Amino acid sequence: MKKYNFVKLFIVAIIFLSCHRQDDNKKEIYSKAIYSMLPADMWQDALVSGNGAMGIMVFGQPENEQVIFNHEFLYEPIGNENVEPPNIAKYLPQTRKMLINGDYEGAINYSIDRAKDEGLPKLLWTDPYHPALVMNIQQPQINSIEDYRRSLNFETGEVVVSWEDDGQRFDRRSFVSRKDHVIVQKIGGDGAINCEISIDMQGAKPEDWATREEVPYGVSDVTRSMSPDWLLYRVNYRVNKRGYDVLTKVVVNQGHTAINDSVLSIRDAEGVLLISKIIPLEDFGKSQIEEAKEAINEVGLDYGSLLSRHAKVHQEIFNRVDFDIYSNDSVRHATEELIAQQIENPDRISPEFLETMFYMGRYTLLSSSGENPPNLMGIWNGQWRPEWSGDFTTDANVNLQISSANITDMPEAIDSYTKMLERIAPDWEINAKNIYGCRGYLSGFRTSGRRGLHTHFNASFPGQFWVSGAGWLLSPCYEYYQTTGDEKFLKERLLPMMEKTALFYEDFLTVKDSKGNFVFVPSYSPENTPSNLKVGGVINATMDIAVAKEIFTNLITVYDNLGIKSERRKQLQELRDKLPPYLINDIGGLKEWAAPNLEDNYDHRHASHFYPVWPGHEINPDETPELFDAAIIAANKRKSGNFSAHGLMHRALIGARLKQADLLYKNLGYMLSKKFIYRGMFTSHNPDLEIFNSDALCSLPTVVAEALVYSRPGFIELLPAWKEDITVGKITNIACRTQARVKELSWDFDKGVVRCTIYSNKKQHINLLIRGYHTTWTSEDSSGKVLTSKGEALEISFEEGETKTFTISLGKR
Measured in whole angstroms, how far is the alpha carbon of residue 164 from the centre of its chain? Predict the structure, then answer.
């Protein structure tokens, strides 16, 4: 070990020197991959692979490898899952009276007290996401470790750890198959393979368990059984009959095996193949081990064939979008170098780093989309009881996680997301009835993906007052309809959910102000508080108004498109017309609460009141210029609060919609340069690598795509928030919310030329625009038609299935 530690220190020195001078022996030219020159010392720095359902985290330690196994359905039962929200609807009139009279703190305390009276003792957390196990592979060194590298190929999801020892090359390869639904690991090399394999609970140290003393451990029993051919790890939960198994088939080529004290010893082998399955059990007493063995046996024993079958599926999805802003024949740097270079140069975003993080974010979204979308940790976790239970947080986080799925052509992720919503939505009706006495849908703040019951009641975090959740959660599903025109999805899956969301608002909106407009009472702007109050539960949060308006508007559009429910359309129009107007404050900024006596608090990580800017489209420069200007003022005034990464990405997306490139780059650049990135290229929640979270990572491709292409029905804008600092580049296959797609967009600011190819899935007129320039568009078809714009949009006609390519010359601004 001492020899290896010396090598590690030497490599560290080389890495930091190479931030200034690239070592010619370490050149890389492959763009859709990352490599690291050091193994992970902690699980957060591991390289990750996944197939949506199962995930692995590979440390890459030559001698003492650790591979953490995860599964999307492994949440530790702590007894809260089936607790329904209290029946407090009968107390709503009094709560509303207090809020209308300005007794905000009293109203919150009253609602909490009544909830306790009705049986809810306190805020209840969701079941925590937890790891399945850690597989330890001890492979002692022969002499000294040299020429070490670990890498992750985004196109295949394969993690490779390789090194040289005593003149012999060794490697370990692993991936999670999307085709065969197994975890595959291969240990090989030039010399004999001598190793010991054991399986243990990951993160079972006391300091890793919850400090909430009132919540006991959720695991009652852990058993292991081993043979030379099979490893079995069984976990039985304490508070219910569920549990899980992890089964691994061991295939040793030549060599000898033995079992000693729950350790599998392998000696003088030519190679080792490990094929594993994680099996969540609804009933621990009903074993599925034999079925799992049969399934594993059927996949075959050839690593190359297994990888090829998986890669064929994974690669096709991943490669639908290309993003190129760093020359393919340029030197590619190790992750440690990329991170260090960006930290040393925070004022300029590295094209190589941004391109790499775009691909990493896309890879993470794909690899953690199964029957669920990504949770706060994607699909990977190395500790029990992680922060915020590692769950799906619905007031920004999961919304950001899924935000790139439609525009970067990953309907598989939207399907995963919709499946989860469909699974938990029945509970939203219980929430609406119990808390407000309303029909329809009321989502909660948090879910483990099994239940959607709302028990996040708290005085400082009054989730019980938030009524926008269901609408925001359905927004990506509606966007899917906009980008694809998929009427089957709309009619069978989305429309019924939209109608139940509108039904809630119809019942909820009964209080009116002196002008005859509805009052949202109670109301909450997650997770902020007006600057002149101590509590956040108030009235008329701008977000609540925007989401209700969006649901009504989208339903009206759907009814018009389908030619149905004309009477219901009129009712929704009447409801929409009575919604309160947005307000502008005394500095000209869009107010977070549409109430004169509630003052804005600009220093906060959330930016919920920009909902009509992003993800909505209501506030834009062409249709609502006054509100658009007010939003710009408010957005530039907004600070970061605790600098949460999701807040930075949220504000970057708002910057894109507001055509504020400086605002976008300020927030994106801060996230990239302030130690948010682990060495495995995963992101943290806070600066200085605090809390492993994937919300910023999965939303980074959205920031890039929205900076390059903005769309709404009948309208496509190119380069709305892209700075000229990155002078040359290309992106492909961006889906637009007008059933068209930008098949390719390339730019060269030095030459003042942009090229784009647009395909339309239907016959339509599309307004095309590059804002801020005088432009000359040349159509590259037989006519060679030239169109000149002085900054306004050009209306272009498309036939169904037609593709048009344009060369655009950028004139003066």
Answer: 37
